[in-house]
């Protein structure tokens, strides 16, 4: 059990470090392209659409699947905040948008590519009642990624989405 806990703490930052080292040129280019004011607007709008849409979809589907909640983890663990707001968005967006969506969109339509990569995004959230909501959120982030051609838009939007969710969970107790 101790090894599993240690792996959960050490493995995500190690993956993130590997990602940064492997993609330093791409990251530098993304940061240079990020300076435009439209990117801040894209982050704001994509976060708002994702959060509002996720909650609307979950309220509509809760009568069929039960109340949708974010995976129930104790909100008093600092590692949860750090992981959910920094590491998780980078890794998930790089895999789901930067690799899967990008490869699929070169061969298929936007809708199919976004749908498939969003399903891959939703599966590891281990939440059947929120599955459709997570697919919707993934679809929004695919759209903003394609629109901006900048992976930092969905990464920052994802981080804000997680931050807002954790903040609300913390305030509820």
UniProtKB/TrEMBL annotation:
Q: Enumerate the spans annotated as CAAX prenyl protease 2/Lysostaphin resistance protein A-like domain.
A: 76-163
Under the heading InterPro entries, the entry gives:
CAAX_protease, Rce1/LyrA-like_dom
Which Pfam families does its entry note? Rce1-like
Q: What residue intervals traverse the membrane? A: 6-21, 42-60, 80-100, 112-145, 151-171
Q: Kindly list the GO molecular function terms attached to this UniProt entry.
A: metallopeptidase activity
Keywords for this entry?
Answer: Hydrolase, Membrane, Metalloprotease, Protease, Transmembrane, Transmembrane helix
**PANTHER family per the record?**
CAAX AMINO TERMINAL PROTEASE FAMILY PROTEIN, SLR1288 PROTEIN
What name does the UniProt record give this protein?
Answer: CPBP family intramembrane metalloprotease
Q: What is the protein's species of origin?
A: Paenibacillus barcinonensis
Print the organism lineage.
Answer: Bacteria, Bacillati, Bacillota, Bacilli, Bacillales
